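One-letter codes give the sequence; the integers encode the fold. A sample entry reads:
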Amino acid sequence: MGHFEFAWSDPLSFMAPSDQIIGLLGEHFKNYVLIVQDYDHPHHFVMHKSDVFAASGLINEAQKELNAEIDAVADGAFEWVDWDLSDDDEETTDY
């Protein structure tokens, strides 16, 4: 008595993927924010957080970093390449 064994090999296999991720984040990190969006609901998101105040700070800092990345793209830090994929000069081949 007092000893419990799972009937399946992985004790996390009965949990939803988001619950598994939240469990792992809680074990390894002091604070976390997880924001996910389902393929079927593009205008809806689900947010899980360890602490509302820490989440606010994490999101504010993440927003600053994202804005810096967007500004880098807008300032030309990345070079867009336009590939000419037209087959004007080449013979068409059936595959």
